Sequence to fold (878 residues):
Amino acid sequence: MNDNVNMCLLPIEGIKIIVDLEEIKIVDYNDRVKVPVPKSEGTDYRLSKQKPPYDPRINRAAIVQPDGPGFQIDGHTTSWMNWVFHLSFDARVGQVISLASIYDSEKHKHRSVLFKGHVSELFVPYQDPTDEYYFKTFFAVENSDCPNNAVFMDGYYAGQDGKLVKVPNVFCIFERHAGDAMWRHTELDVPDKTEARPEVSLVARMIATIGNYDPALDWEFKPSGSIKIQATTHTHVEQIKEDVYGTLLGDNTVGLYHDHFLIYRLDVDIDVSDNTTPRKSYWTVVSETAKTESEAKIQLGLKPAELVFVNPNKKTKPGNSYGYRLIPGLTTRAFTKYNVWVTQYNKSEIWAGGRYVDQSHGEDTLAVWSLRNREIDNKDMVFWYVIGIHHLPCQEDFPLMPTLSAGFELRPTNFFESSPVLKVKPPKPVTLPKCSAIP
Amino acid sequence: MNDNVNMCLLPIEGIKIIVDLEEIKIVDYNDRVKVPVPKSEGTDYRLSKQKPPYDPRINRAAIVQPDGPGFQIDGHTTSWMNWVFHLSFDARVGQVISLASIYDSEKHKHRSVLFKGHVSELFVPYQDPTDEYYFKTFFAVENSDCPNNAVFMDGYYAGQDGKLVKVPNVFCIFERHAGDAMWRHTELDVPDKTEARPEVSLVARMIATIGNYDPALDWEFKPSGSIKIQATTHTHVEQIKEDVYGTLLGDNTVGLYHDHFLIYRLDVDIDVSDNTTPRKSYWTVVSETAKTESEAKIQLGLKPAELVFVNPNKKTKPGNSYGYRLIPGLTTRAFTKYNVWVTQYNKSEIWAGGRYVDQSHGEDTLAVWSLRNREIDNKDMVFWYVIGIHHLPCQEDFPLMPTLSAGFELRPTNFFESSPVLKVKPPKPVTLPKCSAIP
Fold:
């Protein structure tokens, strides 16, 4: 073995070992096939090994916030602008957002949006019918994963001996200044009547390293009331297989076609815990309500569909129900058949793929629960969303793949009486320092 | 009339005046119906009129770049990292990107990606069968539309008298630091083997004010070779209509349901001017080539589809054709039926909706040109993409709508031999100044 670190690119293929963990004993060993190992040339991603650096023209840049961050963290509760939410760590899923509520300046109180939200299942089916497989997960964000204005947070879980285990720097929290506008308006024929406010949002980020796969999971809160949930994938596996399942990337190296699926579970509590999902036909407001779990399933992309969660018992002044709606992202349809599911809340229904996943017998999965077709109208509902990213590897992904993102957004829809951001004051401009303190 | 400036919210409805512009004469006047004018209360968006400001907690923030911007502008040509492109102004469509090419560090030359790209058509069909209508466009970006590190560029066009007309500050150009990673990798079981590079991209932005509608149009260039094209809408029209076509937003105010369609025209030249579009079935690489215009049309969302443009006459070392592929965004299907069209290049085919739009007789439109079903295989091709945003207004959009975005991405696919960003050197960290120069 040479000193190259990019082991994912140098797999020894074709060996499968099955271990009985109770007996700590190898019960099966199968050396199916010998495959040539790919060349390691060009696979080292470390900066120290790049010479000469290709392009030094990424200039130094940083966000300055002379008044410090705009959010406050008290234990695991973060307050920022009109949002308050709790962020905690779970040994299985990592990031858990709970009790997210938003301040209503007209009603003078915080109003509930999300009781609890997290990833329920992560599934990366490789289009490779052979069965070598590995799986190992750990969680941590590095400084380089987050911008310079980020604040890091530790996580905790109960270890096998019952003692507290600390996971340092498992999350980062930062204000995102991406250079976009929150709103903008020009009044025609009225000079100097353009105003705009910069879009600033709060991001809570976690990165899970799962074998060759490092998804960054972002929960982004916007002052407008939106919650945007995004998964960014970075996959680097290259395996050696016959060409039909992948793209030949180099000597003995084939990138396998695969999908990335993340199933999110969101226990939404829009204003109150019991919600209703009225359905609108696209061009008239004749609403039907999805009354059962089967009526609420959606195959995105097939026809225009709008999913809204409302408090059916309260109305705005003009008579609309308080609600939040789904803005879906790009969709890949596949194994789950539906992208969107709604189930009646049941405290045991947490893991879409079953509590023990591949050791489950298939009886405790989302697909089976929803066959009971329970009533959801005016009940506490759980919303399931399947993010799918279809990845056909190409040579640009070798040895490291540029990021690819997908996500969805929950956006207030007649939850407020009017725009919650109209009265947000734009920050005073920062005069950039010209002093010698910038090295 | 009171001193409220938000005229879009105070329309005098039901009046239609038709003017003969050759004779400068009113030829028809129709006062169809009297409609009560909405209340102006709560519609003034100007900061000076907000008291008290709702939330002052958006802290001051700015991007500092001690070495200045990382791009160079020479006339209308911008160079940044591995990209070079030309940005110019057209009186009808605004922003025109041309001769975009990317440096290949292995071939030691710039290689063509896009010959010319711009919006061909913008269409906002309101679901309102009555015919009051207005249309007026102007272009300009304001300081508040772009981050503090933006550089502004003027545009020029030939006026009616043949003289040069300058449009000041029509574009802004800036490096976007949104806090994401360009790539990231952790090697399992090897300590301290996580590296990541911050994602930095170059954005060229234009904002068009068209009646009540202010779309921000971004062309974003990434060091990975991707070009991301995005339209962000900010619509503020509220009209007074019976409830069936919209949502009641307040006294006498109804937000009309509507779609936003932008049709982009991209004369792609991937490596060379004559390209081919192989089609892949999703899970095996049996490629079929779309040989004619009708074979290349796509209804996104209906079934998995991959659109790739390749130079059919050159191969990478492992034998893949140099290519770029489409990563579509969220899709709204509607009037154009197809989201994606490919036509053989024809210099007269620029305007998807016809040269004179609503005065056209329908014979010079994209739908008609493509009926000729010309060969596209190994020809100079034009790629048309329809961005659709479906807008069901809600009370949060009153009086000003938070932004909503949609777009698509062209991403290199075996265009390079390997990742073009592996060797990008991360910028040296900026030590934030603690001097008194920050006010």
In short: Residues 293-296 of chain A form the longest helix (4 residues).
